Amino acid sequence: MNSPYNPSSVEPKWQKKWAEAKAYEIDLQKAKDPYYSLVMFPYPSGDKLHVGHWYNFAPADSWARYMRMKGKDVFSPMGFDAFGLPAENYAIQTGVPPAKSTAKNVKTMITQLTRMGCMYDWSKMVNTSDPAYYRFTQWLFLQMYKHGLAYKKLGNVNYCPKDKTVLANEQVWEGKCERCGSDVVQKPLEQWYWKITDYAQELLDGLDHLDWPEKTKIMQRNWIGRKEGIEIHYDVPNAQRDLIGPMDWSVNDQTLAGGLNRRLTYNRRLTDEWKRRIHSPRTVHLVFTPHSRGPAFQESSEAARILRILDVVAERHDIALHEACAMPDHLHLLVSFETGRHLERDIVKKLKGASACEFLKAFHADVAHLWGEGMHFEEVSSLDQLQTTMRYIQENPATASISDAGRILSVLPRQITVFTTRPDTNFGATFIVLAPEHPFAQDVASGALASQQQQEVKTYIHAVSKKTERERQSEGRKKTGTFTGYVAMNNLNGREMPIWISDFVLAGFGTGAVVGVPGHDMRDFEFAQAFRLPILRVVVGPNGDTTQIDHAEQVQEESGTMVNSEFLNGLSISDATQRMMDHLESKRWGKRIITYRLRDWLLSRQRYWGAPIPIVYDPEGKAHPIPEEHLPWMLPTDVAFKPTGESPLVESKEFKQRTEKIFGKGWRPEYDTMDTFVCSSFYYLRYLAAQSDSEKLRSAKGELRMEMKKKNRKSQIANRNFSIVEPAIEHKWLPVSMYIGGPEHACMHLIYARFVMKALGDFGFVSHDEPFQKLVHQGLITNKGAKMSKSKGNVVSPDGFVERHGSDVFRMYLMFMGPFTEGGDWSDTGIKGIDRFVQRVWNVLTTKTKKAGGKGKKKSTNTAREDASIVTPLHRTIQRVTESLERLHFNTAISALMEFLNLLERQEDVSMETAQTFARLLGPLAPHLAEELWEALGGEGFVIDQRWPTFNPSLTKSETMTIVVQVNGKVRASMELPVGTSEKEILARAKEQENVKRYLEGKTIRKEIYVEGRLVSLVI
Predict the structure, then answer these.
(1) Tens digits of per-residue pLDDT, 399-415?
(2) What's the pLDDT tens digit per position in 599-628?
(3) Is there a cis peptide before residue 423, judged by omega within 30 degrees of 0?
(4) Prediction pTM value
(5) Are 427 and 568 in contact (CB under 8 A)?
(6) From residue 303, how far is each of 243, 353, 405, 411, 610 by CA, in Å?
(7) How large is the C-alpha radius of gyration of the chain?
(8) Which of 194, 439, 825, 993 has CB atoms 3.0–4.6 Å from 973's, for a disulfide?
(9) In angstroms, what CA-CA distances link 316 with 132, 288, 340, 735, 809?
(10) Which residues pair with 4 in a beta bridge?
């Protein structure tokens, strides 16, 4: 009798052989049929690998092995997402530097993953905390910055006053810090963002071409949140647009270069980014002559419109528009901008182009610009000249004997812009609600807009600052708010609509303002009821109710016919929506637009263990990108880890000294580090790149042009030579053929990686639009119904099971729990059954296989004439295992092998061909056992290098079929009939079954249903 199979000796043996032979290393350039098999890389936690990791990695490895045996050149790499908060928290608790604890954990996990027997190409491992890696994280930031996709602005963060630290949303539970239980407040901090919103539509459109789970695509579509609607502008009669920049410089004869900068930084209307960039401003008085004179400049309403457009365009392009005036035949503008910008090529072009395009649409003009007949300017270089010019512009209408109403920007009434997808109900609008962060609300709180409600508004905004965004959005929460003291005008009916502030409106969504239609929106109804605001009916639903709306069940949101809406009466909601949009645009009260729920990606983290943002600031506070030759911009080590409310990098003397040594006295580094999702947004590219300490990033020749339409992408790449990834390798291996990971990353990593890939394509670095063509989510392994996590104390370590049973047994046991994409609840009660299966396989195939002489050498003695009782089941087993693996149904593949093993156990002996075929079928599922069997059976090379068995379709066909017979949906009998039996005969035979006849006796058969080859259903 053979010795039992001993995994404790067999598995290390084959792991050593694979490593010595470099069996899993692949030449990326020479591969003929590339297949990129990838799992989401893990965080190197001190808790090592748990069962959930195994359930992700081991079956994914089985898939990769299967594809290799199918003839693919499989690339299966592994790495570590090594930056992040856990290592920093560990450092806070123990004083052990994150670099040290992370390196230790990585070493441990490599040992565990190797013991798992996965076919990883370790020669191409990545570690995101390695400077050789994060130099490219920083390089990626610089590319985003270079192409205008990175910017800095003030943003609210979750802040714990006790721990003095910023918290991620996941660290806030019911408004309290998960660490100390203190109330979390919203604190404004300057943060770096990437403009992922510029790619919203591309991200949406790209989903149509991906082989991803439909649920995941739906989640991304909802997260991106495309909405088609209209922006409606409501005048606020008693609130005017103020001037940019206070006019109280103390030194009359100073130039504006320093003084204007200092004063502008206090102005609320300029973005924080603009405040930092206007360090040496240039101020000019521009005079434009329109392309054609006519009603556009004779009517004050049209003059007002062009002034509003100019105001928006100027703010969008960082141009400080102090004042503007529209005359019947020319325009005056007083503007400031950064000295480095060219007046005509940049500033004038921005004002001309965007304004003209927007303005001339209304007049169906066939000209491409607004200022066709003339433009002149004068430099404004002193305070006196600035004040004189300002007065001149403001008094121009008087000297021209025309009304100043609608012609001077500073006297125009403020407007509140609201986005809505349901403008059809606008006749029923009775109030407007602003987010507490809305500029209008902030102006009331600060006193910039005089209001008797100032103190109430200020108090309310302060109270809201303590709430997280998640709390503000929670359903069913009581509506709160306060009145601003102002009203807006509904142009449709002249109704005055009070302007309120409420925390259920978020600044980051839409315009930060909503128009309240309480009769036809449940959220608005709840708000109106809370504050006794009017509720009007403008839609009659299918139930025909026309009474006053007093109860929630009367609120009609989705269907109905318009009433009390003048020209919309009698129209359906759909038709009325389009009709109202047409009307608002024709009156120039609104404009159709498309909005997205997606918001820009906030990168900044006030933490230590992350990639430093490669930005430095000059003595005046202006941001400068770090030149690429200084990458990697090293993370300093002379820091303490105790939370202070600032990034720990602030404490580093070396960081400051390094910055001043390179850039000059008074320069300082950016102290924030990057979100770790940046690290994982491109790691699939770095796996494909050569990994060596001497690798240098090679600069491109010439300037890169962003081409949003992605024209000629391949030709761009052919002329570039960058080492983030070699173009030929990227083009050959991407997109990833199979990506396996958890669904929890659907709206984070999976969106971020897609965005980065598209951006790099536009920059000319890659040739593909998408990083991952096929995506599969493994199921969740729970423990007593709860997700395994350290905080719950329910993590199950696999190490003990692997010690006792071996990694192959543990791998197959996990796969045998159920379908890979469904997961299951952890239980170890069945693992002994898999252990017995392994021992039976070893015993049967090593004792019953026919031998043919000489030193244990085994081969088939009857290959030509295998017993039919084995051949047909063998080919059916090959078919079942193949089809199961193609669907990632590892459990049914194992089940098929178990059934075939039962048959082999009943045989007197087993042919060599059958035994070796069994070993090959086992190869992806139990790699160590398969290799040991292959060697014992006289196979040459590794089993992983053998071709996958094929089956003969003619031998898989059954000569009989099993037909189930149901009566009124319940199974009453089954029949074994020859394949090809006619439907008529099958129905007749079904009705003759004894157990069926009992239920049919005395009854009338109302329907007979036959499902070919499977089922007869009789309805009585």
Answers:
(1) 887 877 788 988 888 89
(2) 899 898 888 999 999 999 999 888 999 999
(3) no
(4) 0.81
(5) yes
(6) 18, 17, 9, 13, 52
(7) 36
(8) 993
(9) 38, 20, 18, 36, 62
(10) none
